[in-house]
Amino acid sequence: MTGDRRYWKKARECVDAYYNHQRQHRTGVHQDGSLRQDWERYDPNEATFKGATSAWMMALLLDPLFHYWTLTGDQRVAKMVVKWCDFLNRQGMLPDGSKAYYVINCFARFNPKESRGEFGPDMEMHNAEIAYTFALGSFFTDDHGAA
User: Fold this and answer.
1) Whose CB among 37, 57, 59, 101 lies 3.0–4.6 Å from 129's, allowing a Cys bridge?
2) In tens digits, what is the pLDDT along the chain, a chain of 147 residues?
């Protein structure tokens, strides 16, 4: 980063927002480690889950979060990554573990009749990003005492 205080402030505000969203989601529904939204409002052609998230989009977010952590040592990043990995492992992978759902239904565990998620086209092509996600979770759990 440039060292300009404005950018540090904005970066911290982003991490604050992610951390608060994960811990105290505005819906008031259980905190499961996901960063979720109403997917129907996002793209109803993909899914209509009221609480949903994307493993692939989260993998994209984890990269700059990790970079932020390398610059600041902010332990909230480690906690967020570990909580997300716990969620992804518990709810975001297909039963055979071969790939993640394209859109994960965060509320499916409360209603067994609901789909756990939507299958996406070629999601296995994102297995490298999913592996990176779990590698970060392992890094923070094993090496840096995140939880």
Assistant:
1) 59
2) 577 899 999 999 999 999 999 987 666 667 889 999 899 999 999 999 988 999 999 999 999 999 999 999 999 999 999 999 999 999 999 988 888 999 999 989 888 888 999 987 787 888 889 999 999 999 999 766 554
Q: Residues 34, 106: contact at Cβ < 8 Å?
A: yes
- Cβ of 113: how many Cβ atoms within 10 Å? 5
Between CA 77 and CA 82 the distance in angstroms is 9
The per-residue DSSP string of 101-120 comes to -SEEETTGGG-TTS-SEE--
Q: Which long-range contacts (CB under 8 A, 24 or more apart) does 38-41 make?
A: 39/103
